[in-house]
């Protein structure tokens, strides 16, 4: 039986990877800051991390945050080398080498740590999940007018499909940098925003606003897209239908409830 450690194993992606690996007959350890018996803060490392990786055949590194990713990865790699873990799988983001966005720079740095770790490794880059896009749009639509960065497109992918691919890679041999994984279609950000407004029952004026800076230019040029690898099948509308149901019902029953969770 293969023993696999999933970091960030209680998160949006990680918990699905855990489910799929267990369904495949693997023994799975879940590492997160608050999940016993492997409750570990990767940014600190220590004996708890050493115990988590001991005897593991593969690590799937899904844990990520807005700060400290490089430190966390370095600690994980150090522990994995000490335990002679044969395979480290890392999930990254399409465009981290093309868009000079701060978070992307951190993800690219982690990729390099993985590649230079001396371990057997696999790196999968995916486009942004539907969940993240909705979280962004929820924040932007708190105002009466929904302001969007002009000229942007996106290619959101279903997180469950990325989990399927990661579980497949984790069960196999180290493969290096594998082909990117993108959602089924490249869409304008405005069309995605209008689909979200319709599904959630919100009424907002939509205004496209030109921005500036190298990161914005990188996104506007499509550096975060992979149209040639549009291998995902789940559409944004299908995700919205599962999450919100009928937008018309929500509009009629949920007015005045903008402050409620999920509103």
TrEMBL record:
What Gene Ontology terms describe what this protein does at the molecular function level? protein-containing complex binding
Question: What InterPro entries does the record point to?
Answer: ComplexI_NDUFA9_subunit, NAD(P)-bd_dom, NAD(P)-bd_dom_sf
Database matches in Gene3D superfamilies: NAD(P)-binding Rossmann-like Domain (3.40.50.720)
Classification via SUPFAM superfamilies: NAD(P)-binding Rossmann-fold domains
Tell me where the signal peptide lies.
none
Organism domain of life: Bacteria
Domain NAD(P)-binding spans what residues? Answer: 8-131
> What's the protein name?
Nucleoside-diphosphate sugar epimerase
User: Which species?
Assistant: Streptomyces qaidamensis
């Amino acid at each position: 039986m293969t023993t696999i450690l999933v970091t960030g194993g209680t998160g949006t992606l990680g918990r699905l990877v855990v489910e799929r690996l267990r369904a495949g007959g693997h023994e799975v350890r879940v590492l997160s800051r608050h999940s016993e018996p492997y409750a570990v803060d990767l940014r600190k490392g220590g004996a708890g991390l050493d115990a988590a990786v001991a005897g593991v055949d593969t690590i799937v590194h899904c844990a990520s945050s807005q700060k400290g990713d490089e430190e966390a990865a370095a600690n994980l790699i150090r522990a994995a080398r000490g335990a002679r873990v044969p395979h480290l799988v890392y999930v990254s983001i399409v465009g981290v080498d093309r868009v000079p966005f701060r978070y992307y720079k951190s993800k690219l740095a982690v990729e390099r740590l993985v590649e230079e770790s001396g371990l057997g490794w696999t790196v999968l880059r995916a486009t942004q999940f539907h969940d993240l896009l909705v979280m962004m749009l929820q924040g932007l639509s708190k105002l009466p007018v929904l302001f969007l960065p002009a000229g942007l497109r996106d290619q959101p992918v279903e997180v469950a499909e990325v989990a399927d691919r990661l579980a497949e890679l984790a069960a196999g041999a180290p493969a290096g940098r594998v082909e990117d994984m993108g959602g089924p279609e490249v869409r304008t950000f405005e069309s995605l925003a209008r689909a979200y407004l319709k599904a959630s029952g919100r009424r907002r004026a939509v205004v496209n606003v030109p921005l500036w800076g190298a990161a914005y230019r990188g996104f506007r040029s499509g550096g975060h897209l992979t149209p040639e690898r549009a291998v995902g099948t789940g559409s944004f509308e299908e995700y919205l239908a599962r999450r919100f149901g009928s937008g018309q019902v929500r509009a009629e029953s949920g007015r005045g409830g903008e402050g409620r969770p999920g509103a």
